[in-house]
Amino acid sequence: MNGAEELPEMYDYDLIIIGGGSGGLAAAKEAARFNKRVMVLDFVTPTPLGTRWGLGGTCVNVGCIPKKLMHQAALLGQALRDSRNYGWNVEETIKHDWERMTEAVQNHIGSLNWGYRVALREKKVTYENAYGQFVGPHRIKATNNKGKEKIYSAEKFLIATGERPRYLGIPGDKEYCISSDDLFSLPYCPGKTLVVGASYVALECAGFLAGIGLDVTVMVRSILLRGFDQDMANKIGEHMEEHGVKFIRQFVPIKVEQIEAGMPGRLRVTAKATNSDETIEGEYNTVLLAIGRDACTRNIGLETVGVEINEKTGKIPVTDEEQTNVPYVYAIGDILEGKPELTPVAIQAGRLLAQRLYGGSTVKCDYENVPTTVFTPLEYGACGLSEEKAVEKFGEENIEIYHSYFWPLEWTIPSRDNNKCYAKIVCNIKDNERVVGFHILGPNAGEVTQGFAAALKCGLTKDQLDSTIGIHPVCAEVFTTLSVTKRRKEEFSCFLPGGAGTPIFCPWRSWFEDLWTRTELHHP
């Protein structure tokens, strides 16, 4: 540690954290609990359109929080339409007010920004709105928005800089397109929107924009939700298409031009097929890029102190204790190589790191079986392995897939989306049918998945699920009665929570046989 243990007084701080997102703040507050001198440097480089935000990182400002709130806005629109069937007198035409929604969302975010600053002050953590760059061993330069520079030293450093949206590198992308960094504070309704990308960010944004009544098209290079269970991803895409979202598949934009300025204006997008020389054009009011994110690690002086990164991705390889190849530099969050890019993961890793560094703990962050939810119109909750990963890890002959469609009781009165919700578990046959993958498409998927994630951590088996008495009538009880597998082609269960509490084996066998063929619900 270059004499750090012998001469701790030589440093300005015990710990300097670069990045004031969820993970960095969690680590800062936990380290301060052990009476350590902690500094947080946080600086938001404006987007090409000039958007910036306050303390709290991506999740609070331009990610999880505004995304979930706008998703809720879309769900409320559907609830209003459903309410007519429950006896409520609702006007035939329901209008959404974009400006009112964004104002409310931004006001809430502002209160969170303020709360984080107050919390740091109360815990005696030094906060500077400045851009941090390593300038030498144990030394960092902090540059504020006026260009004023200061040099600080610390015994240890934590990199928690997160990621920012990627751009296409084509004519007009940075001049005329927006990213998720811009969308949630956009001062005008985006109008007819082209969403470019197949990531969860792309589908979530496309979903809530369509849900508030906008004309939305998604342009996809290849598959949806790469890295997620493809059976579930395809069902999400089908549901979105059935609800008005248009998909242009196997095309990528090559040029974006402005036809008319305005708020919104009009843009012309030229796109090229991925498998031929075919080109197409389309006109939109807004083009939202959601093609992935890049780690913010390339311009913070890591090479100056010798911290290694993956040159292709910018990600930082670390030990199981989040330590880089430079002993006094640690890293957490989305910038880690091979780790889940999720806010709760960064928070857990940051908190546990501080406890190990300063509290004598030996507990490490467990990156296995991390639950997550994609907040598309039909929410997707998952924990553990996808079907593809399970086959790759255990072999197809050693896994069993139990599955069922289901129809939420609340949706039966408005008679919508019958048998669009879907439950699936992936079991390892050779390990007592241990559940290694949990997947659900349906309302409140995140709430359902959170509880089952704890069960998976405890080694849940299919027998234990079968012996669990379900809560009736709720969607989650479908997992206590799963009996049909993909391996065995037999009558498919159609679970109705409002029924007798067990799957209804429907008499419409020919219809379900056709369903089997269309959705490939069995192994060939």
From TrEMBL:
Reaction catalyzed: [thioredoxin]-dithiol + NADP(+) = [thioredoxin]-disulfide + NADPH + H(+); H2O2 + NADPH + H(+) = NADP(+) + 2 H2O
Keywords: Disulfide bond, FAD, Flavoprotein, NAD, NADP, Nucleotide-binding, Oxidoreductase, Redox-active center, Selenocysteine
Cofactor(s) required, per the database record: FAD
Any GO molecular function: thioredoxin-disulfide reductase (NADPH) activity
Record-annotated disulphide pairs: 59-64
Active-site residue numbers: 472 (proton acceptor)
Stretches assigned to the FAD/NAD(P)-binding domain: 13-350
InterPro entries referenced in this protein's UniProt entry, alphabetically: FAD/NAD-bd_sf (IPR036188), FAD/NAD-binding_dom (IPR023753), FAD/NAD-linked_Rdtase_dimer_sf (IPR016156), GSHR/TRXR-like (IPR046952), Pyr_nuc-diS_OxRdtase (IPR001100), Pyr_nucl-diS_OxRdtase_dimer (IPR004099), Pyr_OxRdtase_I_AS (IPR012999), Thioredoxin/glutathione_Rdtase (IPR006338)
EC numbers on record: 1.11.1.2, 1.8.1.9
Cofactor annotation comment: Binds 1 FAD per subunit.
Pfam families, per the entry: Pyr_redox_2, Pyr_redox_dim
Record GO biological process: cell redox homeostasis; response to oxidative stress
Pyridine nucleotide-disulphide oxidoreductase dimerisation domain span: 370-481
Annotated NAD(+) binding sites: 197-204, 292
Annotated binding of FAD, by residue: 68, 132, 334
PANTHER family: GLUTATHIONE REDUCTASE, THIOREDOXIN-DISULFIDE REDUCTASE
Family: Belongs to the class-I pyridine nucleotide-disulfide oxidoreductase family.
Annotated function: Reduces disulfideprotein thioredoxin (Trx) to its dithiol-containing form. Homodimeric flavoprotein involved in the regulation of cellular redox reactions, growth and differentiation. Contains a selenocysteine residue at the C-terminal active site that is essential for catalysis. Also has reductase activity on hydrogen peroxide (H2O2).
Protein known as: Thioredoxin reductase 1, cytoplasmic
Lineage, uppermost ranks: Eukaryota, Metazoa, Chordata, Craniata, Vertebrata
Gene it is expressed from: TXNRD1
